[in-house]
Design a protein that fits this description.
This protein is an alpha+beta fold. It contains 4 helices and 5 strands; from the N terminus they run E-H-E-E-H-E-E-H-H.
């Protein structure tokens, strides 16, 4: 059975503030997610991170333990953790390149206020684009 976990966190230090920082995070995420058969999408915006990951229960639980232990994240909060019939994300890790536009479309100023419903709407908008 597959699951989708949507979580938000606050970035620590320079995390997500430069192209190099984002490239390093994506590189490691792609390698780990390929190994663990996880697909995902990540968004950085004004010091906040939103991620949607899909995969098997054991693999996602292991990923979440790594995220909670990762010093680049603080205030990790699970917005949604639910079984799914099929994946909506195809790649090991995608980067959402237009976070401000998606946030504007759901009426949010930043990711600190995002809910599970907001994240689902943004995922729908991203997948439809």
């Amino acid at each position: 059975m597959l699951y989708r976990v949507i979580f938000a966190s606050e970035a620590v230090g320079a995390t997500g503030k430069s192209v190099l920082s984002i490239a390093q995070i994506l590189g490691v995420s792609v390698a780990n997610n390929r190994r663990d058969h996880i697909t995902g999408c990540m968004m950085f915006h004004r010091g906040h991170i939103l991620q949607v990951v899909e995969g098997g229960r054991t693999d996602l639980d292991r990923l979440m333990r790594r995220v909670r232990a990762d010093p680049r994240h603080t205030a990790v909060r699970i917005l949604s953790d639910t079984p799914i019939a099929a994946r909506r994300i195809e790649h090991p890790m995608d980067l959402c390149g237009e976070p401000a536009r998606l946030l504007e479309r759901v009426g949010l100023p930043c990711l600190s206020q995002v809910t599970a419903n907001d994240a689902d709407v943004m995922l729908d908008l991203r997948c439809a684009a």
